[in-house]
Design goal:
alpha/beta; four-stranded parallel sheet; six-stranded antiparallel sheet; 346 residues; 2 domains; TIM Barrel; elongated; 30% helix
Length: 346
């Protein structure tokens, strides 16, 4: 439901698809985050920048009524924001100012232009729906010291209430869930430098993508579990999977990965968790009621997963796996693998 999907011409709006999603969210008691992006052709600069990604060649173009230095009317974008918030006030709780504005495929304009658009959007949103919260344009950990820093220096900080970063690993490093910790370090360094650590920090897009090099169902389930646990451990306040309904085998709908997500949620919700700690290839994460543990040296293939022996603390009596199976512990060691388990005393 991008800008170009909803607003095909000046003053012309089609809310049918959006209303369908908003109704489903309301019926399920879910809040909604709306991400701005994809300039419609009628409002875009012509010719557009090279390399715009989906849905078309104009989607990453800045609006034609904005100059490179951010001056101009910004009437096209402001009109869309006004129409959207007027239509959906109370049904959309959060607005992300632009999708991956650090990527030329999603934003081909200048930093001054995107800062101006964010300023106008924030003013409109806060005026029409004071309860709504605004997320920064999403960036990546690798561009925090460059693109995000430039956005803040150009005056972007007053535009948002929540810092939002896509914290997957860069390129093929994304195959390793623990690469998140390096990305998080990059994010924290920049937020400290810009005195933004008091704001909530979200990750509204993470997960394995097609071509990352991970396809085994057990490995994918373990990846999902470890990614969620690691983010909870450092206190990421909210995290979103991209994307739950992706193509097989990368989505989480009706498969072991979705079950893993639900199991990890049941482990974490209502409990506190400390940052995960590595001892060689073994990661442990302390909860108020137990311990999560896995071994990054292990793997899975065709339904068979390798394991190693872990000497667990004596206070624990049961293990829970990410498929939902609870097992009584015996002896002094338990087998651990690529997929995390939760150890509990009862």
């Amino acid at each position: 439901m991008k800008w170009s999907d909803l607003n095909s011409a000046s003053g012309v709006y089609d809310w049918t698809g959006l209303d369908s999603w908003l109704s489903k969210a309301q019926s399920s008691n879910l809040d909604v985050l709306y991400t701005f992006g994809a300039t419609p052709q009628y409002a875009a600069t012509n010719p557009p920048p090279a390399g715009c990604l989906s849905p078309g060649i104009y989607s990453c173009a800045p609006p034609s009524d904005l100059n490179a230095d951010g001056t101009g009317t910004d009437a096209y974008f402001s009109a869309f924001v006004t129409a959207l918030v007027t239509h959906a006030a109370g049904r959309i709780s959060y607005y992300e100012l632009w999708n991956e504005a650090d990527s030329p495929g999603f934003w081909g304009g200048t930093t001054a232009q995107i800062v101006r658009m964010g300023k106008d959007a924030a003013s409109i949103i806060h005026s029409l729906d004071p309860n709504a919260k605004i997320l920064s344009p999403s960036a990546h950990g690798q561009t925090m010291a460059t693109w995000f820093d430039g956005y803040i220096v150009a005056g972007g900080a007053p535009n948002f209430d929540i810092v939002n970063v896509h914290m997957r690993g860069a390129g093929l490093l994304n195959i390793n869930p623990e690469e998140f910790l390096n990305v998080y370090g990059q994010v924290e360094t920049e937020l400290t430098a810009q005195n933004l650590t008091s704001l909530p920090l979200w990750d509204d897009e993470h997960g394995i993508r097609m071509g990352d090099g991970l396809t085994d169902p057990d490995m994918l389930a373990g990846y999902v579990a470890r990614s969620a646990i690691l983010r909870a451990g450092v206190g990421i306040q909210r995290q979103y999977i991209y994307s739950w309904d992706s193509v097989v085998p990368y989505g989480l709908q009706g498969n072991a990965s979705g079950t893993a997500w639900d199991q990890v949620a049941s482990w974490l919700i209502g409990h506190s968790i400390s940052p995960c700690v590595a001892n060689g290839t073994i990661y442990t994460c302390q909860l108020d009621n137990g311990q999560i543990v896995w071994d990054t040296a292990q793997s899975c293939s065709n339904g068979v997963c390798t394991t190693s022996s872990y000497s667990y603390p004596s206070q624990y009596s049961y293990s829970h796996d990410i498929a939902g199976t609870r097992t009584a512990l015996t002896g002094s060691t338990v087998q651990i693998g690529y997929k995390p388990i939760l150890l509990e005393s009862q």
